[in-house]
Amino acid sequence: MKPHGRSYSLGGRERRAPRAPYRQERREFKPMPIKDRCNPLCPFFKCSKNALVVVNRVVKGHVQKVAMCRWIGDQCLGSRCQFAYCERRALLPDGKCAFAVRFKGSGDEFMKELEKESLDNKVKDILGRRVGRRETFLE
Prior knowledge:
Blueprint: E1 7-10, E2 13-16, E3 45-47, E4 52-59, E5 62-69, E6 74-75, E7 84-86, H1 107-116, H2 121-131, H3 134-138
Antiparallel strand pairs: 1-2, 3-7, 4-5, 5-6
């Protein structure tokens, strides 16, 4: 008689059942905003009531994933719901995703603009007179 565990005995020797090769598959999740708005199908979008469920629905003959709210029994309101939050803290108060918003002012861009601008001789003379060390500030 064969026991139900992983190991079994044959002729007094203990043998182990062959194991499947161990695969560590770690998927890197990426945010999925729709344009700049937060998407309830995003892997980081959560419901504090734990009422968010993703179901498959047939829409115009095609199967689509739809976010449903078990609490109200209808489609999820997304970022308009008071219980919605983002695991990565990217849900902005107006419903936009911080991953999708492009920030206008960047430090690198500012330094590149300064390098591109050339100062006139008149400005260099004024800075030289006021500061005294002309080369350190203008380079």
